Amino acid sequence: MHVAALALTLVAVVHTLWSGLAEPGHALAFGVLVALGELAPAARHGPGVRQRAPGEREPAPLGAAGALAYALLGRSAGEPTGQGVLQVITVVVAAQLLAAVPSLGRVATVRPVRLRPVPGGGPELDRAARRVLTVAFAAVCFQPLRDAEQFTGALGEGPAYAVLLVGLLGLTALCDAVLAAFVLAARTRYPYGSHLRDELCGLPGIGSAVCATGAVMALGVAVAGLWALPVVCVPLLLTQVSFRRYAAVRATYRQTIASLARATEIAGYTPPGHAHRVAELSTAVGRELGLAGSELTVLEYAALMHDIGQLSLVDPLADGATARLPAAEQRRIALLGGAVVRQTGVDAKVAVVVERQADPYREQPLTARIVRTVNAYEDLRGEGVGGALEALEQLRIGTGRDYQPQVVEALAGVLARGGPPRVRTG
Questions:
Q1: Across residues 26-32, what is the average pLDDT?
Q2: Which whole number is the average pLDDT over 381-400?
Q3: CA nearest 51: which of 120, 124, 108?
Q4: 100 vs 38: CA distance, rounded Å
Q5: What's the pTM value of the predicted model, to 2 decimals?
Q6: Which of 162, 228, 308, 395 could form a disulfide with 224 if both were Cys (CB 3.0 to 4.6 A apart)?
């Protein structure tokens, strides 16, 4: 993907330098808009590299909407525009480079540059490559229609033309989701289908706002000229602010759950980091089995709080290992843990997983099966039964009643690839 984006960029820049800019005023206006849209998240995070908030699919929606609007710009104040596909790509790339300059300067002054390379160039480079390819896709789809005067003349600038723009932006959003899922699958080694479901589930949120704003920008400029740009940007800016507040609330919520989960570690009932390891590995196994979206969130929260019921014990268990306890005692601790989770106000689905993690696997939801299997694996490793192969062998012996075979094999697959991947997100 990076090679394709780079090759396309080089061809576009050379062609634009050779032939010159068509309508430099429009190119400058949209270039400034895209650059400001890319800069807005960086300014919010302050010095350093821009970070992607939890659950944030598009960290620069205004920049994305401006780039798509320029790709779909057919008229300005009633007059036809003349920018081609390669000029659109050149303007978008130039705007992204301009927006990257302040961040690079802050990184150089705030901390020394690390010599250790990041595989694949990092998420920011991935997003820049995706932007180039998706904008090129939109422009390539739209330019032939714009140049067909009979076609555009029949549509006019009314509802039919608006529907055309929205349809093209919908296809572009799907293209972007496919590319994003491909990048994430390559970086995390999780199944491609799981990432694609996540990306498609994220489209109705900020993705729909980006597409709608891009279409309105193109239509507004077509009728009123460049004066329409600042007016159209306001709704998306408000949407971006609201989404960031929601993302911040979600991040705080997760931190609260993680803090509650550490209560067993602080009290000496479980080893340090146990809940975090179980949550991380459970999430990896969940993705391996095709879980996505809210199911993964419930799984992560339940895995973090799966041992909270041990606080009811008078004497801590050795290394907090519940896998070797009698089934009745395991269920008692699980039920007590579920009761505690319900009192915290966490989603009731999380409490159900915690309560049912000690049931026979045929009576459990998939999330509870995953938590039980991963927790048992961590307990067995803590008891010193040997390496990962020996612990997995113990789990396979218990697949008749306690552990679902498919979950055990998914866990084995994750471990065979080196465990949950560590992916830098900002």
A1: 88
A2: 74
A3: 124
A4: 8
A5: 0.66
A6: 228
pLDDT of residue 147: 60
Which residue has tokens 């998306």?
236
- 411 in Cβ contact with 396 (< 8 Å): no
